[in-house]
Amino acid sequence: MLPDTVHKLPREERFAYARLLAFMARIDNELTVDEMAMFEQRLGTALLSPGQREAIRAALKNPPTLEECLEELSGEAGRLALRDAVMMAAADGTVDEDERDALEDISEHLGLREDAVEQLLNWTIKGYKWMKEGYELLDTLEE
Amino acid sequence: MFPDGLIHRSPQERVRYAEILVYIAAADGELVREEIAMIEAMMGRAMLHPESRITVRAGFEQPIPLEQSLADLDPSLAQIILRDAALVAAVDGDYDRKELTALRKIAKVAGASTTQLSELLDWVKEGWLWFEKASVFLGQ
After folding, report:
1. Does any domain span residue A72?
2. Would you state the torsion angle of the CA atoms of residues A12, A15, A19, A25, taken in this order, to the nearest 10 degrees?
3. Which residue from A9, A61, A103, A108 has the highest number of Cβ atoms inside 10 Å of its Cβ?
């Protein structure tokens, strides 16, 4: 949606990034149309090859474990994956316990500061407020 | 996620949405990787069918004329397109003269005044500032 650096990552790291998001998308065993659209948006940003996209969509059907995802994830790809995992988890307005635990595990694996997830959640709330403002701007065009 | 109902639009409308965004991205004469990533993200968000995406990508080389895409466009869809076109146009860091001309044409169909278009561009800037903050506290 906004200028991002995901597409600049090496191919394998973009794949690992997307795989983690597939895990997050299926963490509550439900996948709404809105969540799917958001997931597809992030896949688009990652500029994955057709083969990689197939593999990621397969991962949506049979999600990898968090441990498997984290094995291949570090550095910038990991931080971007955590950022977008937070956005995905918060997309329905709440972050449930399983999601929160997974986010904290990812943060710990990446060696981030203790309040990283909390900070990202606050940042996400501001972002959703910004998106809502954009939608309200469109509403004013109809008056 | 923008609560705009884009995914509930018809497949034809969503293709038109993507084609106009491609036109905007290519308006300044060069299509950089950032712009392609943005278009791919928008196509993903719109849940475009993979075959439709191939059709839209053909526009990277030769975009469909804007006037053609705007003809008979539903004004409420034009509003969504205007917002996302403003995001796409800003992705390379600035609004090129051709991009602004195209945005004004879309704004006309969307029923947006010059002031409203200006407010939309300010809103895009605010979004950039918000997005960059994540990089700061993630230590990138």
Report:
1. yes
2. 160
3. A103
At B3, the pLDDT band (50, 70, 90 cuts) reads low
What is the tens place of the pLDDT at every residue in A49-65? 888 988 998 998 899 99
Asked whether residue A45 is assigned to any structural domain, the reply reads yes
How many other C-beta atoms are found inside a 10 Å radius of the C-beta of residue A49? 11
* Separation between Cα atoms, residue B65 and residue B34, nearest integer Å: 22
Residues of A within 8 A of B138 (CB-CB) are 79-80, 82-83, 112, 116, 120
Q: Using alpha carbons, select from B90, B93, B92, B98 the residue that is nearest to residue B121.
A: B90
Report the residue of A17, A141, A143 to disrupt the B interface, i.e. the one with the largest count of B CBs within 10 Å.
A141
A67: in domain: yes
Q: Which of residues 90-129 of B touch A (CB under 8 A)?
A: 90-91, 110-112, 116, 119-120, 123, 126-128
The helix (run of H) or strand (run of E) holding residue A89 is: helix A75-90
Q: Which residue range(s) make up the domain with A102?
A: 7-141
Average of pLDDT values for B113-131?
A: 94
**Cα distance from B2 to chain A (closest Cα, Å)?**
6
> Which residue is associated with the tokens 């990812």?
A106
Q: Which of B37, B119, B126 sits opposite A7 (nearest CB)?
A: B37
Residue in A112, A126, A141 nearest the CB of B112: A141
Shortest Cα distance, chain B CAs vs residue A64, angstroms: 22
Cβ of A44 and B43 within 8 Å?
Answer: yes
pLDDT in tens, A3-53: 688 999 999 999 999 999 999 999 988 788 888 888 999 999 999 988 898
Residue A2 lies in a domain: no
Which domains occur in chain B, in start order?
A: 6-137 (1.10.3680.10)
pTM of the full structure: 0.90
Total structural domains in chain A? 1
